[in-house]
Design goal:
An eight-stranded mixed beta sheet has the order 6-5-9-3-2-12-15-14, with no helix packed on it. It has a five-stranded mixed beta sheet with strand order 17-18-19-21-20, covered by helices on one side. It is globular. With 880 residues, the chain is of the alpha+beta class. Strand 2 and strand 3 (44-54) form a beta hairpin. Helix 16 (681-700) packs parallel to helix 18 and helix 27 runs antiparallel to helix 28. Among the domains are: 29-203, tricorn interacting facor f3 domain (Immunoglobulin-like), CATH 2.60.40; 323-451, Neutral Protease Domain 2 (Neutral Protease, domain 2), CATH 1.10.390.10; 457-548, Immunoglobulin-like, CATH 2.60.40. Bound molecules: (3S)-3,7-diaminoheptanoic acid and zinc ion. Residues 307, 311, 330, 333 line the site of zinc ion. The site of (3S)-3,7-diaminoheptanoic acid has 12 residues, from strand 20 and helix 3.
């Protein structure tokens, strides 16, 4: 859209949708912008000098975005410029030359900024967050991702309080000033959109290192953390070096500046931000040592450090033309970080974790009121579209391309993409075109994944003909209408399959291979396999080769065969999940009909053989016993019965725990304390299985579990085992629960990140009075309502992970969450808008709950100053 169209939209009274189809290139370009920050807590002055050129073929006003700014002065070519108008959402400049120097002076109040967008204070440090549209809270600017300019930044601040003054690019100057102040100047040689701008000022401990790139360039690496945290930086630095090396080896992509900096801050709305040369991280994804961080924290740090580093090419060097293209950088970068984690760790375990996220959360998003394709077509508040769909499903779409092309052609496609578009702001279509041109594979139909929302369902039937020795598989695809789109068309769905013979051996299909990737492109399609000597068991969607739901009428025996014999570990896990889901559905029905619950011995025996098997990765065994959550289980039903799902699932887990108790005890004892703590995948796997076993024991043998918990806490040398014990005490409501929770609190109360784990346990306590506990914890010495991490641990975990109690039919959970959202609305709408998710995905709940939720949403809608982030979600939810 043109700059003026933007203006028309922002001056509208009610928040308006913006449309992808309205995209127009800007009337003006910016070649350079030189920024100068004079930092003070409540009154920071910002001077921005840009070289601007009109590209429109006739004179037009220039609209610059700006929010919450105090305008001091505007100069055009060094002359005071008075022909301007301040409007809602920005500034309109009239009567401009074709090419000019624009100087804008503004003031902002970082200390008051609790939305953590733009320039704000995290503790004692100044920092910024500009993606998606935060730069407009720093100065009036063409804050859109297709405006690429060269940035230079001079930062001035008190030298004693802020010895480190950081920004993007390379440091070019520094010096002392009057009144105890000093300055540092930075130049970033790579043109970039404003969302990648960053500034940090503070007093830190710094871990320095270096990395020699493949072509021999020496890059300085610097990790800045709050004072006293240097002992928690080793893993982040190692992860960064591993990321740099992996990107060179697998994608042939090398780092481009002389320095790579990461700063960890405590107040951050999301995980981390890939600002050019100066990543800013939520400290949760940097700080770790054996005492304070779990294995999952270590893995999370590796993944997020990798993700932000990989953005340097997929996001920064090649960026998005407009925000509708967000998945261009996010889907692709998630794919890259998933591959990184899989190459360094266990591919199957990573795949299972990613699929759990898709099934437990993304499918619900696709079926909810905010449903959108991975490339959305309309948006009110861009921050609302940093979603599981854009990120995780976006990554699944890239993964399907990878499956269809194979690694070699995929990499050729990547190379062509980089050659063609380095230094540009491009679209998802540009990416797919590079993949198509490099591979020679027609991706016309495949592109529909970018524009169609919803989770496709694939129904599979088969037919074996003994006489002709042929086996047929027939696939029918269907995507149900979604909130945003009523008409759905067939998609190009890659289906990776394997056929098992009666001995559990995989049948050779073609070219000596035992798997084959089928391309389902029509509504219904049949594939024929020759020379099949007996009815096989089909393993479908190996490695989850497409983000779909699929159904095939498996018998229990067939599922057990797949669990034991499939060559793909993901398929083994998935067969176990399917078996669990089948009996979950049966038991929910039984409950609804007042019939007794049951679990057949074939089920228990199948899982027993997993637990006793000697050659399975312990992490995989643990995953086999990690069944769909109550939230994920809702996907199995048209009408969700909160109580029945909870009761049926609990019954099944209790049965498994009871019948396999001896084996769980044995498993627990076999995986006792390893020597020195090391976060390597073998040890992580053992700890994971041991703590899973403990949680099962805590369901049935409370006394024994109590002993185990106490001795594990007394003897362990790492947070994973400490938390594993605590978690079993909490979920099993063991006698020692109070005592061990209190001891943990006494030990860690002044470490917010560690206390987040404790708050999360409190919030997931399976007890009817959990909400009263949570409310009391708002007064806890370690709780801080302004800190997004604390809020997510206590409020977010309760609403998302303690579904049964959150959805209590008395409506208290809904009212509680709404109260918190109201408090956050004016202060940090971005975090409020994340927390609201469980309140908007209500369509399949029962009538009573829907009414209760709607009345809470109406409370929000009645707020006089409801933030656009929330307005977008609440109105869409109520329109369901
Ligand atoms: N690009 C950032 C996310 C920004 C979110 C803005 N609301 C982190 C990431 O995806 O790497
Ligand atoms: Zn990202």
């Amino acid at each position: 859209m043109s700059d003026l169209d933007n203006l028309e939209q922002v001056v509208e009274k009610n928040p308006q949708e913006k449309y992808l189809s309205d995209y127009r290139p800007s009337d003006y370009t910016v070649a350079t912008i030189d920024l100068e920050f004079d930092l003070y807590d409540t009154q920071t002055s910002i001077k921005a000098v840009s070289q601007i050129q009109r590209v429109a073929n006739k004179p037009v006003p220039l609209f610059l975005f700006g929010e919450d700014l105090t305008l001091v002065s505007i100069l055009v070519n060094n002359q005071n410029h008075t022909d301007y108008e301040l409007v809602e959402g920005g500034l309109v400049l009239n009567d401009l030359p074709d090419t000019f120097t624009l100087e804008i002076n503004t003031k902002v109040d970082p200390a008051e900024n609790k939305a953590f967008e733009g320039l704000y204070k995290s503790g004692d440090a100044f920092c910024t967050q500009c993606e998606a549209e935060g730069f407009r809270r720093i100065t009036y600017y063409l804050d859109r991702p297709d405006i690429l300019a060269k940035f230079s930044t001079k930062v001035i601040a008190d030298k004693g309080l802020y010895p480190f003054l950081l920004s993007n690019g390379n440091q070019v100057d520094q010096g002392d000033l009057e009144n105890g102040r000093h300055f540092v100047s930075w130049v970033d040689p790579f043109p970039k959109p404003a969302y990648l701008f960053a500034l940090v000022a503070g007093d830190f401990d710094c871990l320095e290192d270096n990395y020699i790139t493949k072509s021999g360039r020496d890059v300085k690496l610097a990790l800045y953390v709050d004072k006293g945290n240097l002992d928690k930086t080793k893993h982040a630095m190692l992860s960064l070096k591993n990321s740099m090396q992996w990107d060179e080896q697998r994608f042939n992509l090398e780092y481009d500046l002389d320095i790579y900096m990461i700063v960890a801050v405590d107040f951050f709305n999301m995980g981390a931000m890939e600002n050019k040369g100066l990543n800013i991280f939520n400290s949760k994804f940097v700080l770790a040592n054996s005492q304070s961080a779990t294995d999952q924290d270590y893995l999370g740090i590796e993944a997020v450090i990798g993700h932000e580093y990989f953005h340097n090419w997929t996001g920064n060097r090649i960026t998005c033309r407009d925000w509708f293209q967000l998945s261009l950088k996010e889907g692709l970068t998630v794919f890259r970080d998933q591959e990184f984690s899989s190459d360094l760790g266990s591919r199957s375990v990573n795949r299972i974790a990613n699929v759990m996220t898709m099934r437990d959360h993304q499918f619900a998003e696709d079926a909810g009121p905010m449903s959108h394709p991975i490339r959305p077509e309309s948006v009110m508040e861009m921050n609302n579209f940093y979603t599981l769909t854009v990120y995780e499903k976006g990554s699944e779409v890239i993964r399907m391309l990878h499956t269809l092309l194979g690694e070699e052609k995929f990499q050729q496609g990547m190379q062509l993409y980089v050659e063609r578009h380095d230094g540009q702001a491009v679209t998802c279509d540009d990416f797919v075109a590079a993949m198509q041109d490099a591979s020679g594979i027609d991706l016309t139909l495949f592109k529909r994944w970018y524009s169609q929302s919803g989770t496709p369902q694939v129904f599979v039937t088969d037919h074996y003909d003994q006489a002709s020795q042929t086996y047929q598989l027939t696939f029918k695809q269907k995507t149900a209408p979604t909130a945003d789109q009523s008409k759905k068309l067939p998609l190009h769905i890659p289906i990776d399959i394997e056929l098992l013979d009666s001995n559990g051996n995989a049948i050779t299909l073609s070219e000596g291979k035992t798997n084959r990737v089928l391309s389902l492109t029509q509504k219904e399609q049949t594939f024929v396999f020759e020379n099949v000597s007996a009815q096989p068991v089909p393993c479908l969607f190996r490695s989850f080769s497409a983000p779909v739901k699929y159904q095939y009428a498996y018998s229990d025996e067939q599922l057990l065969d797949i669990m034991s014999f499939a060559s793909d570990e993901f398929s083994r896990w998935d067969a176990g999940q399917t078996l669990f889901s089948k009996y979950l559905v049966n038991n929910v029905k039984a409950l609804q009909l007042g019939k007794p619950l049951s679990l057949p011995s074939i089920f228990i025996d199948g899982f027993k053989s997993v637990l006793v098997s000697e050659n399975l990765d312990p992490a995989l065994v643990s995953d086999m016993f990690t069944f769909t959550s109550e939230t994920g289980a809702r996907e199995l039903f048209d009408v969700v019965d909160i109580e029945a799902i909870h009761e049926a699932r609990e019954f099944m887990l209790q049965e498994i725990a009871t019948q396999l108790n001896e084996l769980f005890v044995d498993t627990y004892l076999r995986h006792q304390q390893l020597k020195a703590y090391e976060p390597n995948i073998e040890d992580i796997a053992k700890r994971k299985l041991k703590n899973l076993a403990l949680a099962f024991i805590a369901r049935v043998d409370k006394e024994l579990a109590n002993d185990y918990v106490l001795s594990q806490i007394a003897s362990c040398n790492n947070m994973t085992d400490h938390l594993g014990a605590l978690s079993a005490a909490n979920s099993g409501l063991l006698a020692c629960r109070e005592e061990v929770m209190q001891a943990f609190d006494d030990k860690w109360f002044d470490n917010g990140l560690v206390m987040d784990k404790w708050f999360a346990l409190q919030a997931s306590m399976p007890s009817a009075d959990v909400l009263e506990h949570i409310e009391a914890l708002f007064e806890h010495r370690s709780f801080d309502f302004n800190n997004p991490n604390r809020l997510r641990s206590l409020v977010g975990v309760f609403a998302q992970n303690n579904a049964y109690h959150f959805h209590n039919i008395n409506g208290a959970g809904y009212a509680f969450l709404t109260d918190q959202i109201i408090k956050l609305n004016s202060q940090n709408p971005q975090v409020a808008s994340r927390l609201i998710t469980p309140l908007i995905q209500f369509k399949r709940l029962d009538k009573k709950r829907i009414e209760l939720i709607k009345s809470q949403l109406n409370r929000l809608l009645a707020l006089p100053d409801l933030a656009v982030d929330l307005y977008e979600k609440v109105t869409k939810a109520l329109a369901q």
